[in-house]
Amino acid sequence: MEQSVEFLIKSHYAQLRTSEKKDAERVLYGYQLKPQDTMESVPGKVVSGTIAMMEEMGIPFAYDHFAEGESPEPPFICFLSPGSDNFAADGRVYFKVRQIHIERYTDEKNPETESWVETVLDGHGIFYDKTEVWIESEKLYEVLYSIELEVSQ
Q: In this structure, what are the phi and psi dihedrals at residue 36, rounded to the nearest 5 degrees?
């Protein structure tokens, strides 16, 4: 009998080495698991959350904003989900799409850190729009990546 990925991970979690636990947690919380998912079906799934992607970028990040006085030195990222762009059919939401804004802040123009973000997005096959603005009051550049992600049902 095939067992679900979630069951397999949770039942063997205590026996995992510390380095393996982080990967197990990404599978549990980074993917939207369904009861019928098996160990073989998970690798092809699209990561539903953005936290795993943010970690891949290697830049400090927070959802929406950092706590007052706790903002790291630039560059850093704030990401948020300002809305949705759902597709309707027969008067109902047929296909859910979540809008995500990834805001990269830096005090000097640095194409290398931009390429880190873009390499991760490209690696996940995610289309993005990119805009840039100088925020005079903060003395920071903001590069905004606007993406849309399918919400698994």
A: -85, -5
Three-class DSSP labels, 78-130: EEEEEEECCEEECCEEEECEEEEEEEEEECCCCHHHHHHHHHHHHHCCCCCEE
- For residue 76 the two structure tokens come to 């850093």
Q: Encoding tokens for residue 81?
A: 């989900």
Closest CA to 153 of 30, 7, 28, 34: 34
Q: List the chain pLDDT tens, one digit each, 153 residues.
A: 444 545 555 555 555 555 555 555 544 444 433 444 433 333 233 333 577 788 888 889 888 888 888 889 999 999 888 888 888 889 898 888 888 899 999 999 888 878 889 999 998 888 999 999 999 999 999 999 999 888 765
- Please return the burial class of 51, using the count of CB atoms within 10 Å of its CB with bins 0-12, 13-18 and 19+: middle
User: How many whole angstroms separate alpha carbon 65 and alpha carbon 67?
Assistant: 7
Spatial separation of the C-alpha atoms in residues 150 and 46, rounded to whole Å:
9
Burial (Cβ within 10 Å: 0-12, 13-18, ≥19) of residue 41: middle
Contact 106, 77 (CB under 8 A): no
